[in-house]
């Protein structure tokens, strides 16, 4: 490693080198003050830990509280611009944050780069100190340079030690006077494998406010649009983005790069497949898929495309998802699929879900320093090379759910990996504020999960999938979620119809599934609990302790007894006319709900509630139907597996999707 501190004048030799920016330091705007912990930190780097112990593979480290640092916190009022900030006298600012630390291990693993240069432009007297970490989360001081006046400090840094994990970052410490950081960048003089162009595609359904906001963000950050050839909004709703307030303004700001495509509601898979298709047709090198109900950090577009340009081979590069309602909370650091039960949304075993950077910074979180390799990236933000699309096809025609997971695994099987790149992200409504495992979405979860298993499961008959699915049916059934169970049963019946029906069902299955909801009380929502009959407690809790999940030893007999009650015990007239309890959404667990004959249950958003009513006759029917259809799927598994695998290339092909788009699209417009 070498360090060079120089004035604004540079040598001719340095100017002749073609330095490319891999990642620049960025800071939040006025509207994003609450997210400052994602961009800027303060306090010591080496050996500083937060309020609770952190563990890496069983090694426990005690952490001092932040109060011990004297409350030396970064302040938003010291943010000067998108790229500049200032350290107060005696203050130490650290860029060991999600958006500004350099994810060295990812560049080491997936690109040919073996060194990078850090360049920091400062004004004032103080120090610039570089740190690094390893996969175990151990922090190491690399080098410190004293600065005075207006200077540019450069550090040439090796990527060799980062095979399993680790980051680089730097701190700036002010002396008796403030020190300004005008700009900082991570650079290379090595040429990329490509200089790709991007089609940014947003699939939307009646989320006009979100779409206009994101288009406005893109228009206000032209530096993020440098490699963007076109921005496409695939509008599948009835509230058209082109008719929304502010559309003309954002269209002008995007300088002719915006195009609206109106098509019928073909779901997320139909919208994202359209984006893939259009990117191939307009000869872009990448398509960047974005969900509609997100807020994008525009710098992410540049970081994803630059990283993809430098990858050793064409690579799918995705961004992380932060919680839109708790904006410093990272949902997960990487997505994998459990190959035995085919379970999604499972974090790597060496990471934790829902990490709050406002409570524990990157420096303080040891597990986050190990590189996380993934099976796929969610299509809230994912960059896909069009070369991959030309080779393996477009999305599965499955409307919603599992399309992103299946595509990532399909690409991996073809030799194209997926990387979820730290420092690139969107803010999205967290899954904890949704409940898409019940209601109409359960149909798509179930059918598409089984399709995934038929296509990719390494285990005979899908491993533990069928057993797990039967358990889910039972849990929903004894929880009085009958509409959900019926949707899951219909999903498997449609699965048995084979792959040739998938394109035809894209625009029709959702309204059919939703129409079924009219026959189930748990789907009839009212805005206030007082809109339902008064509570009539039918059974007092034992010893006043309420309900609790049974122990593993008692679970089987308890469940058997409960199922018998569900099937055989009639519901009294009182319980049919009056609910027994009001249950908050977070308490809507199968072992609790199975104790009631009726209850008022709030939805995930907290905006409404519905009346769950036990129906023994319906319980019996759904139990029988569930067992029958799962048995039929098992018997037909070899045939279905062969049919779906043989049909995969055809149903995901450009030609197949082109026909579907032609049937369900209006003409394109600017």
From TrEMBL:
Which pathway does the database say it acts in? Cell wall biogenesis; cell wall polysaccharide biosynthesis
Describe the location of the Galactofuranosyltransferase-2 C-terminal domain by residue ranges: 465-662
Please note every region of biased composition (Basic and acidic residues).
Answer: 57-66
UniProt KW keywords = Glycosyltransferase, Transferase
Coiled-coil positions are none
Where does the record place the Galactofuranosyltransferase GlfT2 N-terminal domain? 77-189
List the residue ranges of the region (Disordered). 50-71
Which Pfam families does the entry link to? Answer: GlfT2_domain3, Glft2_N, Glyco_tranf_2_3
Q: PANTHER family, per this entry? A: GALACTOFURANOSYLTRANSFERASE GLFT2, RHAMNOSYLTRANSFERASE WBBL
Q: Which family does it belong to?
A: Belongs to the glycosyltransferase 2 family.
Protein name, entry field: Glycosyltransferase family 2 protein
Q: What is the lineage of its organism?
A: Bacteria, Bacillati, Actinomycetota, Actinomycetes, Micrococcales
């Amino acid at each position: 490693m070498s360090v060079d501190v120089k004035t604004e004048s540079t040598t001719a030799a340095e100017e002749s080198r073609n330095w490319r920016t891999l990642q620049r330091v960025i800071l939040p705007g006025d509207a994003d003050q609450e997210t400052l912990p994602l961009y800027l930190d303060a306090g010591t780097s080496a050996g500083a830990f937060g309020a609770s112990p952190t563990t890496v593979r069983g090694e426990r480290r005690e952490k001092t509280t932040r109060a011990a640092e004297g409350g030396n916190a970064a302040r938003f009022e010291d943010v000067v611009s998108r790229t500049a900030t200032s350290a107060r006298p005696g203050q130490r600012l650290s860029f060991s944050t999600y958006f500004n630390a350099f994810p060295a291990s990812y560049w080491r693993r997936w690109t040919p780069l073996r060194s990078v240069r850090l360049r920091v432009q400062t004004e004032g007297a103080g120090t610039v100190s570089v740190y690094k970490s390893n996969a175990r989360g151990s922090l190491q001081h690399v080098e410190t340079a004293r600065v005075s006046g207006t200077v540019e400090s450069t550090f040439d840094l090796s990527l060799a030690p980062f095979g399993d994990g680790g980051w680089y970052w730097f701190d700036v410490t002010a002396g008796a006077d403030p020190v300004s950081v005008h700009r900082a960048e991570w650079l290379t003089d090595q040429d990329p494998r490509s200089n790709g162009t991007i089609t940014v595609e947003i699939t939307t359904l009646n989320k006009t406010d979100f779409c206009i906001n994101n288009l406005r963000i893109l228009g206000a950050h032209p530096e993020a649009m440098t490699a963007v050839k076109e921005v496409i909004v695939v509008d599948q709703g009835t509230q058209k983005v082109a008719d929304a307030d502010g559309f003309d303004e954002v269209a002008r700001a995007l300088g002719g790069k915006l195009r609206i495509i109106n098509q019928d509601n073909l779901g997320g898979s139909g919208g994202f497949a359209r984006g893939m298709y259009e990117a191939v047709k307009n000869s872009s090198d990448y398509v960047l898929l974005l969900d509609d109900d997100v807020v994008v950090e525009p710098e992410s577009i540049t970081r994803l495309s630059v990283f993809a340009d430098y990858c050793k081979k064409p690579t799918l590069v995705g961004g992380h998802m932060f919680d839109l309602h708790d904006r410093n909370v990272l949902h997960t650091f990487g997505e994998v699929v459990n190959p035995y039960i085919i379970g999604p949304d499972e974090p790597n075993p060496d990471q934790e879900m829902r990490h709050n950077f406002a409570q524990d910074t990157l420096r303080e979180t040891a597990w986050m320093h190990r590189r996380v390799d993934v099976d796929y990236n969610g299509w809230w933000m994912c960059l896909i090379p069009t070369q991959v699309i030309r080779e393996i096809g477009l999305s599965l025609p499955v409307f919603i759910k599992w399309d992103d997971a299946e595509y990532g695994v399909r690409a991996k099987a073809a030799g194209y990996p997926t990387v979820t790149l730290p420092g690139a992200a969107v803010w999205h409504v967290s899954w904890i504020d949704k409940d898409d495992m019940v209601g109409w979405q359960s149909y798509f979860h179930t059918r598409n999960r089984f399709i995934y298993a038929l296509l990719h499961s390494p285990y005979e008959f899908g491993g533990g999938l069928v057993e797990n699915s039967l358990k889910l049916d039972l849990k929903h059934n004894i929880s009085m979620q009958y509409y959900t169970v019926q949707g899951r049963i219909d999903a498997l019946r449609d699965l048995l119809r084979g792959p040739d029906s998938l394109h035809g069902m894209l625009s029709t299955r959702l309204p059919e599934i939703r129409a079924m909801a009219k026959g189930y009380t748990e789907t009839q929502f009212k805005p206030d609990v007082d809109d339902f009959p008064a509570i009539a407690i039918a059974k007092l809790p034992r010893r006043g302790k309420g309900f609790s999940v049974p122990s593993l030893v008692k679970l089987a007999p308890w469940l058997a007894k409960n199922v018998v009650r569900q099937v055989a015990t009639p519901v009294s007239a009182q319980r049919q006319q009056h609910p027994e309890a009001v249950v908050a959404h977070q308490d809507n667990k199968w072992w609790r709900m199975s104790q009631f004959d009726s209850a008022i249950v709030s939805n995930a958003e907290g905006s409404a509630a519905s009346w769950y009513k036990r129906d023994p006759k319906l319980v019996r029917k759904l139990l029988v139907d569930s067992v029958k259809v799962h048995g039929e799927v098992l018997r037909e598994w070899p045939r279905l597996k062969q049919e779906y695998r043989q049909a995969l290339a055809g149903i995901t092909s450009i030609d197949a999707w082109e026909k579907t788009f032609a049937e369900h699209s209006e003409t394109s417009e600017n």
